[in-house]
Structures are given as C-alpha cells and as structure tokens.
Design brief:
The complex is a heterodimer of chains A (about 325) and B (about 240).
Chain A: H1 4-27, H2 30-55, H3 64-80, H4 85-107, H5 112-132, H6 134-137, E1 143-144, E2 151-154, E3 157-160, H7 164-186, H8 189-199, H9 201-205, H10 211-237, E4 239-240, H11 248-260, H12 267-283, H13 289-303, H14 308-315
Antiparallel strand pairs in A: 1-4, 2-3
Helix pairs in contact in A: 1-7, 2-7, 2-10, 2-11, 2-12, 3-4, 3-5, 3-10, 4-10, 7-10, 8-10, 11-12, 12-13
Chain B: E1 5-14, E2 17-27, E3 32-36, H1 43-51, E4 58-63, E5 66-67, H2 73-79, E6 81-84, H3 96-107, H4 114-127, H5 143-156, E7 161-165, H6 173-186, E8 191-195, H7 199-205, E9 208-213, E10 216-221, H8 223-228, H9 230-237
Parallel strand pairs in B: 3-8, 3-9, 6-7, 7-8
Antiparallel strand pairs in B: 1-2, 1-4, 4-5, 9-10
Classes of the chains: A mainly alpha (about 325), B alpha/beta (about 240).
C-alpha cells in the first residue's frame, strides 16, 4: 500500500532527479555532457524494457527491433522524404507501435524460454531486413542525417539539435516524459495487474483479468517507449545504421535493467549510466576492459542481487517505486 | 426456485482416468452447499470445471441461465464466480492491501477513484479481520491469515458464487470457529460452494451436501440425510455400517 506521505516522497524524488540532470547541463565538462545526453536516450530504451521485463515479468531478447523501428521510422522518413522533425519522430513512434502490436499478438502465444526465443528470432529478422533493404538503409554503413534535417522549427525560429546544449535538453525532455509516464503506469491499476501477472498469472486470471490483453498492452507500451528512444537517437545524433538492430541492443537493455534494478522506475537510468562509465573508464586503461567489466558485473550480482536500486529498496528505502 | 448453477453430464478425462464422470449437479441460490468425498473423488476437478481453470471434455455448465461451458476463466469471474485456491496462492511479494486491491479495482465501475478503492479494500480486510495487517507482505503472514486473505480476495470480487476449496485446511480450532462465522456472513448475500474435509465444519455450515466418489455423485441431501446414508459411510469411511 502506498500512503499519501510516500506518494509525495516518490514524486519529489523523481522531480529532484530531473532537476539535477537539468542543472548538470550547465556544470558538466563537454565530454561528460555528451555522454550524459547519450545515456539519457539509451536509458529510455531500458525504461521501456523494464516495463515488460521488470513489471510484467516477460523476458524479451528482441527489443533491438523496437529501438530500430523508431530509429528507422524517423531516420528513413527524414532522410528520404525530408520530413520535418516532429513528423519524423511521430513516424518512429508509429513504426514502434505497429511492430510491437504485431509481435505481441504472435509472441505472447508463448511464455518463458519460448518467448525469449521467438522475440529473439523476430529481432533477427528485423536486423536482416535492414540489410535486405540496403538500397534504402545502406546497411552497416548507415545513413547520416545532415544538420539541416535536425532542426526543429517553431515559426521562423528553430532549435538546432546538433548543438550540444539543445541536444542535451531534448534528451532530458524525452527522458523526463518517459520517466514520469512509467512512474504513472506502475502506480496505476494496470501496473498492479502487470506485477500480479509476473507473480502468478494463473491466479490473476482467477481474479477476472484478461491477462493476454494486459500483456499485449505492456508489449505495445514497452515497444513504443523503445521506439521513442530510437527516433530520438536518429534525430539527435544523426546516425541510422544496422548495428542498432543487432542482438547487442537487445541484450544491453536487459543488462542495464538488471544492474539498476528490475521493477524500479529509476533503475534503468542508474544501470545504463553505471555500465556506460564502467566500460568508458576501464577501456581507457586496458584493451582487456571487458574482463574488468565482467568482474564488476559479477561483484554486483554477488552483493546487489536485485540490482543497485532493487537492493537498496529491499534493505533500506522501502518506499522506492 | 431457478438454480444458480447447473451442470449436465459433465465429464473430464485425463487420458484413461475419468476424474469427473458424468456429473449432474444443481446449486440453489443462497445456499451453502458442501462437496465431500474421499481423496481423488474429483471434487477439486469438478469445481475447477465450474470456475473455468480446467475445460471439460464434455457436458454443459449453466450459470444463472447462461451457458458458460466455453467461457474462459476470467470471463466467468466477471459473471460472478469466484474461486479461492486450495493451495494458498496469494501474491507473496505484494502487501495484503495490494492483494485485495487487485480484485477490487476491477469490480469498481464508478471511475476507479483511489478513495473508493481504499474503502472497498479496507472493508474486505476488516470483514476477514486483517485490517491491522494491510501493509504486511502477504508472504510474511501466518498460514491462517493467508487463508483469510484468500477469502478477502474472493470477497473483493463481489461474487454471486464463492467457491471455497478446503478453506479450513491447516487452521487451528479457534481459527476454524471464526472462519465458520465468516462463511455464514458471506452466505447472506452470496451462494457458497464448499469443498471440505473437516466434518464438523461441513455439518455445521452446509444446507445441502453432495458426496462424490470416483468422479461421480454418490449421494446428495441435507446433513442429516448424508449422515444416515449407508452407501456414503462405505465409500467415505471404508467401513461397513454397524
């Protein structure tokens, strides 16, 4: 049960996180400023993944396809048709929604390991499609969106998303919106049903819930969130390539969520940030950085089995959402 | 009186095993009806067919005049059939409050306001005597309290038919007495179908009793009828009547 007191605390915590990220825009040195903008966009993928994996308990190994749907939905329309940014971004969202609905209808007929395999295979199909249509996508080389396509016009005035501060603010805006949406969903009636499905689907059915419909909604919400990150990535960083549809981008969000804490609202961000810096710092010292990353992950699993925020919630701060 | 529930020639086969073998059963509205029988008699399978957890091999199930034989379980729950599990299956990692909020939030038709939800949840917890433990994780409650929480979840569904599958199993004598009072209270506005091994509970609560054996109905009647039935004694106690 969540009383009024902890509701206020939860809300303040999330606003504070957004406020700190806003303030960091003016403080951070250039390099870290760029990293944080990228991490914010990538953690949106993790937040989308967390909706499905953390809350509904469905382990997908194919979320790269939803990220790629947004990436290509926005990137191809902006590059080939010269669509303006809002339209291109919307195209990314629609691509993600359509794809996730179709995948959900098919993949949710399975559970457990079969669900993992089915989502992984569909993602692999999507990855190969980016090569099949390389006339449009240029496969691995990818497309580079020029500066002129990455301007957001408001009347005569425009925001140049290639400018670091603007880009940072756009990433923060997306991050904040998605963070608050996930917070709202997990505290809603639907969020409670998702957790119930994760804990015991059979029992949830016997409480009168159409668990298939609830899971389908979760897949689509998760897919659209990941697609929003993909669309934003294309427009903010100007590159659209096949590598983003590869299996690596299905595994990374899982890793980020596990690290930060599954079924915590802020865990995906914490996990993505942590992972990014562990790789970044260790790779500047040695070419065997993956070895150190591996050791770091093992230590984390040993001492923080439920992820960083998940373990903190379990041991110290019970009200953490 | 029109029956609330009727089954006609209901069957469920698992391979060669006839778990439920041609059951014609009638449940009247407002009654407390107990199903008894030796282990493996098909009692749990029978109520699982009624609530939709298991689909029948053949036969029909009529609930309140509608044929519900092909309805999935969640739709039957929405029609008013609630089932509380034999093996306690509360959501162990959620608070008692959230366990009851889950069924409650679905039955609220008026805007799902938080205040309404809260009032409804606390009411169900109070009726089962769990109000003081609303914030406890369900998994940390004592066994008896988990059984009561199961009932609170059933109540939150506002059922017309509440199926209790061995509700007093593992409860202490004191808890059983309290439980019987609760079932009588529930029966004032719902029909109760009860599977129970404890004869004291059955004889004390039931208006009518159905005895099952080997997937079939062996006898049916008031507690007094059943107590006097020779065939029941043979099947149930494994002894010849004296």
């Amino acid at each position: 049960m969540r009383g009024g007191n902890s509701s206020a605390k939860v809300f303040l915590l999330h606003i504070a996180v957004i406020g700190i990220l806003f303030a960091l825009n003016f403080i951070l040195p250039e390099y870290h400023h760029g990293v944080l903008a990228r991490v914010m966009v990538l953690s949106v993928v993790a937040m989308g993944y967390n909706m499905l994996f953390g809350y509904a308990g469905l382990l997908s190994l194919g979320h790269a396809m939803f990220f790629a749907a947004g990436l290509y939905g926005a990137g191809l329309t902006a590059y080939h048709f010269g669509w303006a940014m809002p339209a291109a971004f919307a195209a990314g969202l629609v691509s993600g929604a359509v794809l996730s609905l179709a995948i959900g209808l098919l993949a949710l007929r399975t559970t457990g390991v079969a669900f993992m395999i089915v989502t992984m295979m569909f993602a692999q199909v999507c990855y190969l499609l980016t090569f099949y249509f390389s006339e449009w996508t240029r496969g691995d080389d990818g497309l580079v969106l020029g500066q002129e396509t990455r301007r957001l016009f408001i009347g005569d005035f425009y925001l140049d998303l290639t400018h670091p501060a603007t880009r940072y603010m756009a990433a923060l805006a997306l991050f904040s919106v998605v963070l608050l949406i996930t917070l709202f969903i997990v505290r809603s009636a639907h969020g409670r049903v998702l957790v119930a499905i994760r804990e015991n689907e059979e029992r949830t059915k016997m409480l009168g819930y159409d668990t298939f419909a609830n899971k389908l909604v979760a897949v689509v919400v998760s897919g659209v969130i990941c697609a929003s990150a993909g669309a934003a990535y294309a427009l903010l960083f100007g590159y659209v390539g096949s590598s983003f549809a590869s299996v690596q981008y299905s595994i990374l969000p899982l890793l980020w969520v596990l690290l930060g804490g599954a079924a915590t609202t802020l865990g995906p961000f914490v996990g993505a940030l942590f992972m990014y810096y562990v790789v970044d710092i260790t790779s500047s010292y040695t070419s065997a950085y993956l070895l150190i990353v591996g050791v770091a992950l093992i230590l984390l699993v040993l001492y923080f089995p439920k992820g960083i925020l998940g373990t903190i919630r379990e041991r110290w701060i019970r009200w953490l959402p | 009186m029109t029956p609330l529930l009727t089954t006609r020639d209901l069957r469920k086969n698992y391979g060669g095993l006839r778990a439920v073998d041609g059951v014609d059963f009638t449940l009247l509205p407002g009654e407390i009806h107990a199903i008894i029988g030796p282990n493996g008699a098909g009692k749990t399978t029978f109520v699982s067919l009624v609530c939709g957890r298991v689909m029948p091999s053949s036969g029909t199930i009529i609930f309140d005049g509608d044929d519900i034989t092909d309805l999935p379980a969640y739709r039957r729950v929405r029609q008013g059939i609630a089932y509380t599990f034999q093996i306690t299956s509360v959501f162990a990692h959620l608070s008692a409050y959230d366990n009851v909020a889950l069924p409650m939030q679905r039955t609220l038709t008026d805007g799902r306001s938080r205040a309404k939800l809260h009032a409804g949840v606390m009411n169900a917890l109070e009726r089962t005597g769990l109000a003081g433990r609303a914030n406890s994780l369900a998994g940390t409650l004592s066994y008896g309290h988990q059984r009561l929480l199961e009932v609170a979840m059933g109540l939150a569904l506002k059922p017309r038919l509440l199926i209790l599958d061995e509700p007093t199993q593992g409860l202490s004598d004191g808890e059983i007495a309290g439980f019987m009072d609760l079932v009588r209270e529930i029966a004032q506005d719902a029909t109760v179908l009860l599977i129970e091994h404890n004869m004291q509970v059955v004889m004390g609560l039931a208006d009518r009793i159905t005895v099952m054996n080997a997937g079939r109905i062996l006898a049916e009647g008031t507690p007094a009828d059943i107590r006097a039935n020779d065939e029941v004694q043979r099947a149930y106690l494994g002894t010849e009547p004296a």
